Automatic annotation (TrEMBL):
The lineage of its organism: Bacteria, Bacillati, Bacillota, Bacilli, Bacillales. The keyword Hydrolase applies. This is Alpha/beta fold hydrolase. It holds the Pfam family Abhydrolase_6. Keywords: Hydrolase. Residues 5-231 form the AB hydrolase-1 domain. GO terms for molecular function: methyl indole-3-acetate esterase activity; methyl jasmonate esterase activity. The keyword Hydrolase applies.
């Protein structure tokens, strides 16, 4: 079945992460919508003013413009954002796909969840002087994000990484059983992930009901390191 995919990128990144799989999905006949979250990629919203609401408002606007219910794919932090948006627009969503993504419970923050992963490599980040941003040392992210990627893909991605607003990390999500929890969910594991360890990905899956679990033997960036496998899974889900 041909579907519309809305792809939600993670922290420090932008819609550029989907550059390989976007045309591949389109060649299979699917419609693909990618976008930069506020303050990411080419979006010029001031990073210091970004909130979780900024993120969810942007995603909800995209959902509102969709003609038919979509398949939402959230990578990493994108899992939090799409979960909150799903609470606001459940009727616009056909399925939720968590790609090496955070799975929240009602009232949890991203920081709450991050601190529970005992096996992930600590990210090379520091808090900005004004306490509003996580500043990343992009040159030190190979093992965290791109361990299985080519040197070319890694270098290109590292040049595009951006600092990350802190406020969305400390804002709790508000979820209910009859909206977010009622939607069909699928998890795609990344087995060699150093940013969200595979053990922790499996702990996260216990927070909700998942129709199916897929596995990719990738790092945290399967859209670069294993694009064929990722597209095959997404096409099967559609």
């Amino acid at each position: 079945m041909l579907s519309t995919f809305v792809l939600v990128h993670g922290a420090f990144q932008g819609k550029w992460v989907w550059r390989k799989i976007n045309p591949m999905l389109q060649q299979l006949g699917h419609k693909v919508i990618t976008f930069d979250l506020p303050g990411h990629g080419r979006d010029d919203f001031p990073q210091s003013k970004v909130t979780l609401k900024s993120y969810t408002d942007r995603l909800c606007h995209i959902l509102d413009e969709a003609i038919e219910p979509v398949i939402l794919v959230g990578h990493s932090m994108g899992g939090m954002i799409m979960s909150q948006a799903a609470e606001y627009r459940p009727h616009k969503i056909k399925k939720l796909i968590f790609l090496a993504a955070m799975v929240p419970k009602n009232g949890e923050t991203l920081m709450d969840i991050n601190q529970q992963d005992q096996h992930a490599l600590p990210l090379p980040v520091s808090i900005s002087e004004d306490q509003r941003l996580l500043e990343i040392d992009a040159s030190a992210t190979k093992e965290h994000f791109f361990a299985a990627c080519t040197d070319e893909d890694t270098a290109e991605a590292q040049k595009k990484l951006c600092n990350q607003a802190l406020e969305p990390f400390v804002t709790p999500v508000q979820l209910t059983d009859n909206k977010f929890n009622h939607l069909p969910k699928i998890y795609i594991e990344t087995l060699m992930d150093q940013a969200i360890s595979i053990d922790f990905q499996r702990e996260l899956q216990n927070k909700s009901s998942f129709e199916k679990i897929y596995k990719i033997p990738s790092d945290h960036s399967p859209f670069f390191s294993y694009p064929d496998e990722l597209v095959s899974i997404l096409d099967e889900i559609a």
